[in-house]
Design a protein that fits this description.
The structure is a homodimer. Helices cover 47% and strands 22% of the residues of chain A. By secondary structure, the first copy, chain A, is α+β, with helices and mostly antiparallel strands. In chain A, helix 2 crosses helix 3. At the A-B interface, helix 5 and strand 6 of A face helix 5 and strand 6 of B. The structure holds a DNA duplex.
Chain lengths: 144, 144
DNA sequence: GTCCATGCAAACTGTTTGCACGCGC
DNA sequence: GCGCGTGCAAACAGTTTGCATGGAC
């Protein structure tokens, strides 16, 4: 999806146009393997294109989300964080001391969810597991 | 905790005072086994005490959270939802069609988290698993 | 040329805060 | 009586929206 033509095709398929701004926003999103909030994403995009506006970033994120290209996470109860979707589903740990976000994989969770959805008759289309606590470093610091 | 003396003791232990407002807010929270957002909670509380204010609700929820009496959930990416803590940890499924929230238990998740935290050296103090999708009813409706 | 996408500023929602008064202890 | 807790209104942060212009197709 990192390539222009892939994004172009995906946009056309959903009735949207490929614009300079949308291309740039998706590029920055994919380059930064982090969970950017709207402001950080905006400043990175703005650094490369001074005319781009914050609302355009929000609007692009909104349609990317509808298209399934971007996921939204509510980390740490504050504002939203965005990331380009990846192949394998993953989850997040956020350190309450330093704020660092650690990604992890947990196939057992997927299995548990699958079993549950069958038993309860649910159709599960998204799953977010968010852990909070202390990361290894902060854990040591707190020891004293 | 539903009783006045329990709340009183818990508040005193953390250097807070028992007020008419805090007692009422906790009562309403415990009566409603739902995930109330601040406005709903406020209106229920307000119905019994016309002088109470929304900021008092927010302030009470804030100290209840610090005290570990109340949990906050970000359901459906909108505003926060609050609920009195329960004995067993549980998780949430939210139907994207009707908005209904279904609680469920999944001990496998706890185990997966425990294994992960040992391996990665994390100290996990909170875990939220939020599933999205279609509930049994809405799933049938969407079939056609 | 058509109509969607953009930039700007203003609106909006959920939540927090400053201040003077009131009440728990 | 001391000092925290309250109500009110104003501030605040993040996000969305109305409108006129610009650009994708």
């Amino acid at each position: 999806m990192a390539d222009r033509s892939g994004l172009h095709a995906a946009l056309r398929a959903t009735g949207h146009r490929l614009t300079r701004q949308r291309l740039l926003i998706m590029e920055v999103l994919e380059e930064s393997q982090e969970h950017l909030d709207a402001n950080t994403l905006f400043s990175r995009v703005h650094a490369r294109d001074l005319t781009i506006s914050l609302s355009t970033v929000y609007r692009a994120l909104s349609i990317f989300r509808e298209m399934g290209l971007v996921e939204v996470h509510q980390l740490g109860e504050e504002h939203a964080h965005f990331e380009a979707v990846q192949d394998a589903p993953h989850y997040h740990f956020i350190c309450s001391a330093c704020g660092r976000v650690i990604e992890f994989y947990a196939p057992q969770v997927l299995e548990a969810v699958r079993g549950l959805s069958q038993r309860a008759g649910l159709k599960v289309t998204s799953s977010h597991l968010l852990l909070g606590g202390l990361c290894p470093e902060c854990r040591l610091l707190e020891k004293d």
